[in-house]
Amino acid sequence: MGELLLKLELSRGYLAVALPVGTLCLVLNRWMWRDHVVRQRASGRYQSAVLAIGDTEAVTNLASELADDPCSGYQVVGIGIPAYGPPRGEYLTINGREVPIVGGVPYLLDAIKGCGADTVAIAGTEYFGVKGIRRLIWELEPMNVELLVSPGVMDVARSRLAVRPIAGLPLLCIDKPQYQGAKRLQKRVFDFCFASVALTVASPVLVVTALAIKLTSRGPVFYSSERIGIDGKPFSMLKFRTMVEDADKELDTLLSANESDGLLFKIRNDPRVTPVGRFLRRFSIDELPQFINVLRQEMSVVGPRPPLRREVEQYDDDVQRRLLVKPGVTGLWQVSGRSDLPWEKAVRLDLSYVDNWSMVTDILIIAKTVRAVFGRSGAY
To answer: What is the CATH number of the domain that holds 138?
Structure first.
């Protein structure tokens, strides 16, 4: 049969069509299936039932992270606390949902059956030790239950993680962040090319927007705001003006209406925003001039949110890491909720970007930005 297939003569035209079409169909099929699974998981289906074990703080953090990301496919249905003893009908509240405490480790196997868990997740291995983990693996084996062990780290990209068996112990190796040297040069070239193309393609939109602003309200077309860039260096960030003239002078009178839970100032229905400005903000058209900042090498296409000086002055040591890279026109904050994001979530996303940056990540964020802009969620 194999020899017969090798003797078949296929035209070059057939191969020229079949190869790219077949590859495209495979990619589309994979994307459609993945999108289907993500949608099902987001609605509560296709979820693995997890029994989380560890001290109260550790299991609460683990359960909260899984609850915040239903697309991961894991839902905590029970919590085991090592020194808890027998179950007493108590619950832990995780993101507004009550999760039963199933007892201590001696009651683990019965609890797995009782809550229907098909996965056991250990948050912290201090109680079990090396031999305890191995014994637990043996006990779960006949039950066909998956075992997950949390290493106690977060927001580390898969590409930076590797498990290395050393001296019989599986040790987790975490590569250091790479945002210097050749990778920074690669990003700079990409930023220049992308910003040049974006400004050229969007030039008709820029002209129409400038005319609309000038004809409908007093004041300049552009709004220049001091922001803090890489290594704490200040620069003037450009945007189309979306507010009335001298809007900054009215800020003090609006501070009491701030809807943000952190250092940011956000008002969903800011009275200073003009009708044209509201439209521009809805589709992020007001941010197009920031590509000029990219050409000036003050910003990147993708990066952390550009902070104000008063925000930076209140940064703690951890948040200062946002200043290790250039701020971006878009970023993880833009595709994850935009203005709707809580302060802590926005900071966490920015720090994750700084530590895990890659060219592939930038391209994916740009693609998701287009979807977020036209979805108009969190824009105000």
So the answer is: 3.40.50.20
